[in-house]
């Protein structure tokens, strides 16, 4: 008898060890739903402490169990999902019956599927993202092909089929050379060089259609995984170019793109300029923007127009220095058919007429020829134009914003600029400071330029190192913001495609030779400029000091002090 008990005990111990070695949780109860056994995995999943639970009701040990329901119904519950706190399990509960169908108890076998479900959700999300990307690629009007790291095609869209003649089944899994009639596969070239290749000409498909291809490498965790190509139909581009050629002149000039929000400048000198511009914007006053080349005079002109009640009307821009001698007059005033040799059939309306109701921006007005100055002065006096080859006049409503980077006062003295025209355009002068006078703006400007060039170059540069920024701040920038932008552009071109930060090593050699003015020289220059502003304001207001102070945005007391300081009457 003792040997039989020992054998039973050893078998029970053997089964207990076997069940404890399982990854699945196991709970066994008798016919009264009292716990007989809970294995190690179950205790860990359910966070049951090692206490004496044998003989207790299973609902007292595992509050949300359904084993007692299986005991009562004698029906199994297979692969049921159940939440145990933050843990999710899948469980099967099975009644234990003898040969006669009498209930002996029940067993629950379950597994923690929290991590498995999380992974399944991630896979589902990835599938959803892939489907979304496929929909995006399909919805674009450009022909797109995607290749893996070995240059084999993995994805194409409907526009690709239209352009090349190859359908998806014919190219997927094949080398990217399959659709090329003449030329080298750009996907293969990018796979070798790991750099973007833009504007590559070749011919594709059985019809040898002429295309331009842009291909960009794809990197994941700095590892090359493939490339994406956009294929442009040259015939469509040429057709669009022809259609846009005539409209380009209008579209290029008839919309102001920038507002005061686009002007980056927190320094005192720049804030003075912005404040002056904002004050004059709602008026009809003629504005003269003064400053060195590259300081942002055209940006200010756009912003002034967009802050005025003319914002929905044309904004016409012309660079007086960019047009050949003798052309500016016909461009400004227009001409009738046959007005001169080479005149366009049907004639052409001038820029002033295009700007009717809006704003005309004359950049580098100091380069305007004397003969044109004279005719333009008459327009400002009468607000009427006469086309070349015509005797008819037309009244216009145009606001004039001019800009110059040269000394107009000296030009007036030497007879190169008509004095009356100078006074007409110099009603509200606004001085835009050079970059060397606003060092505090360099960092935000650099960040803005990086974002802008990321869009233009298809890059993903996130910032600039402190060392590189320190060097940039130490330079003089005679070309101002325009020069700074060109400098950052060259730095980004020097970077490897996988780099995300402009480092000192990426900066190109700096050729600027400008040496900034000494402190005293700057102080005198600012004083002279301030004096001229007050003189011009007094003249514009017929000596009325109250109105002068108001137009300058200063107190009357400050005006008196300044007049005394500069010995003005």
TL;DR?
With 569 residues, this protein is an alpha+beta fold. Helices cover 42% and strands 21% of the residues.
Tag the structure with descriptive keywords.
single chain; 569 residues; alpha+beta; Beta-Lactamase; Rossmann fold; 5 domains; six-stranded antiparallel sheet; five-stranded antiparallel sheet; 22 strands; 42% helix; 21% strand; elongated; disordered N terminus
N-C termini distance:
132 Å
The residue fraction in helices comes out at 40-55%
| Spatial sequence of strands, sheet with the most strands | 7-6-11-10-9-8
CATH architecture name of the largest domain = 3-Layer(aba) Sandwich
Contiguous helical run count: 22
Q: Globular, elongated, flat, extended or rod-shaped: what is the shape?
A: elongated
Number of strands: 22
Strand content: 15-25%
Low-confidence segments: 3-8, 245-253, 513-522
Mean pLDDT: 83
What do we call the CATH topology of the largest domain?
A: Rossmann fold
**Rg, Å, rounded:** 40 Å
Q: What is the CATH first-level class name of the largest domain?
A: Alpha Beta
- CATH-assigned homologous superfamily of the largest domain: P-loop containing nucleotide triphosphate hydrolases
Structural class call reads alpha+beta
Largest sheet: 6 strands, antiparallel
Task: Give the number of domains.
Answer: 5
